[in-house]
Amino acid sequence: MPRILIAECKQEVSTFNPNKSGYEDFGIRFGQEIIDYHETVRNEIGGAIEVFRGEPGVELVPAYSAFFITSGGTLADSAWHRISREFLDAIRAAAASGPLDGVYFCMHGAMASETELDPEGYLLQESRKILGEEIPVVVSLDLHGILTDRMVEHSDAIVAYHTYPHVDFFETGQRAARLLLKIMAGDVDPVTAKVSVPALVRGDELITATGAFGKSIRLAQKYEAGTAGLSSGMFIGNPFTDVPALQTYAFVVTDGDEDLATRAAVEIAETFWADHEKMFVPLAKLADLPAVLKKRETEGRTGTVALVDAADATSSGASGDSNAILDVLMKAGFQGRTLIPIVDSPAVEAAFAAGIGGMVTTTVGGTLDPARFRPVEITGKVRLLSDGTFRSESFGEEWKAGRTAVIESGSFTLVVGSRGVNLYDRSFFYAHGQDPKRFDAVVVKSPHCQKHMYADWCDAMIGVDAPGSSSANLPYLGHTRCPRPIFPLDEAVKFEPKAVVFRRKCQNGKGMTR
Predict the structure, then answer these.
(1) Do 355 and 468 have their domain in common?
(2) Total domains in the fold of the chain
């Protein structure tokens, strides 16, 4: 009976967010509760479980899961040391429980602690010391991950999302599980080629269904589906995780064919580079926003306007406490009904003290990132109070915003959470009684959502050049660790594609060769 270990450690951080993430920012699960939870959501582990369940006799050995409740700032060392210790202790316990035949690790790739800037690579390296070199390990990653050499060296194969916005969590887990089973059966001999591309990219051209980036992904899918193909894709990284390996990567995993892996990875990278200058975000100046909205009004344009504040995207690691758009619209006397999400625990506590229907005068914003945002005073009526726990609209994951309040202040409706949650769908609004379609304007704190969330029905999507630790205006952020020169931080960046090949040699305990 083949035994497959399953473990997870996922977080995406912005190192430009001044607030450290902590242990409490993760959902931690051990053993069978990992299976019980992931069988209820359509994510990577859920997809892998479905595949493994379809194989007669497979025994699942769930070890450990640390899944970020939301993205955030750099992980505090105290939290990292605890999570890494728990992760590796769980791997030791699983290994001691009996022989293991394969390992599936679910990770993100854009994690960073105060002192460990490649946490995923570290966990893979240390897991190898426990498990040995011969047990096959397959790792699934977000395409916003940063594919370090250490991550490839200590795994047999990498599998990455193929979609942005991400709609293939479940399918990525299925792909990873199928590949692991092939390796366990001895049917394939993985070899990986990786090409580094000096680019940090943002914008609509990254939408895989419609943008230029989709060409690279479809080419990668062609190679993955080929006779010798096992896995292929691109990592565009998270530009807000400023670490030494931050850039874009093309990769191809083939069944023993180093030449094919090399040629394919180079071709994918070159296809991407041909379009890289298109991959930026045209942004409206924050100060001009009231005039832009006034012009729409004089033109008689109706319908909801999405004000995209990607600079405060909690799913990208930002703090969530930006009040920049609220402030500029209030000062301009904007009267359109406007829906805004914001993180501000003291404001929530003031609302709870006032009670539903009560009036509250409080400041909102600037509690977490005061260098960028100054508190704005509002007076409003408390319309709703909740514990902030709900299931996501997209994939059914459990999200926890902490105690949450809905406050109406003039034409502005604020959904105020005590902690950030992912905002790449509308569930934070819906869970608190707010339908974005009933507003004239809605602040969307996510760079891209699935089209039906906003783009399909909003009258306009306006990207705003607001301050924040996940700003699409990348030169504003001030990178200090990533490789240089790199687009768009530097002028006249050159790209000379070079593939690095990785191949595991597991006989007699030998590890990776390069």
Answers:
(1) yes
(2) 2
Residue 30 backbone dihedrals phi, psi, to 5 degrees: -125, 150
Sign of CA dihedral 158, 164, 170, 171: negative
Cβ within 8 Å of residue 428, ≥6 positions away:
341, 390, 399, 401, 415, 417, 421
Residue 53, in any domain of the structure: yes
Dihedral in degrees, nearest 10, Cα atoms 173, 397, 203, 453: 120
Residue-wise pLDDT tens digits, 353-369: 999 999 999 999 999 99
pTM here is: 0.93
Tell me, yes or no, whether 466 lies in a domain.
yes
How does 227-245 read in b/e, with b if 16+ C-beta sit within 10 Å?
A: ebbbbbbbbbbbbbbbbeb
* Residues 271 and 289 both lie in one domain: no
d(CA 250, CA 499): 9
Query: Which tokens is 503 given?
Result: 């191949």
Buried b or exposed e, range 303-313, using 16+ CB within 10 angstroms: ebbbbbbbbbb
- Whether residue 21 contacts residue 11, with contact meaning beta carbons closer than 8 Å, is answered with yes
Neighbours of 202 (CB within 10 A): 22
* CATH number of the domain within which 190 lies: 3.40.50.2300
> Is there a domain that residue 19 lies in?
yes
Tokens 């530097």 locate to: 490
Cis omega before residue 2 (within 30°)?
Answer: no
Q: Which two tokens stand for residue 382?
A: 């408390």
- Tens digit of pLDDT for each residue in 38-76? 999 999 999 999 999 999 999 999 999 999 988 899 999
- Parent domain of 418: 284-472
Say how far apart CA 446 and CA 71 lie, in whole Å.
12
Tell me, letter by letter, the H, E, C secondary structure of 169-233: HHHHHHHHHHHHHHHHCCCCCEEEEEEEECECCCCHHHCCCCCCHHHHHHHHHHHHHCCCEEEEE
445 vs 207, 269, 369, 438, CA distance in Å? 17, 30, 15, 18
For the chain, the farthest-separated pair of C-alpha atoms sits apart, in whole angstroms, at 76
Which of 101, 194, 183 lies closest to 146, judged by CA?
Answer: 194
Using alpha carbons, select from 186, 121, 189, 178 the residue that is nearest to residue 155.
121
From its phi and psi, is residue 160 left (phi > 0), alpha (psi between -120 and 50) or beta? beta
Residues 268 and 308 in one domain: no
Quick one: pLDDT band at residue 304, thresholds 50, 70, 90? very high
Residue 99 sits in the same domain as residue 160? yes
Nearest in space to 60 (alpha carbons), one of 28, 98, 92, 26: 98
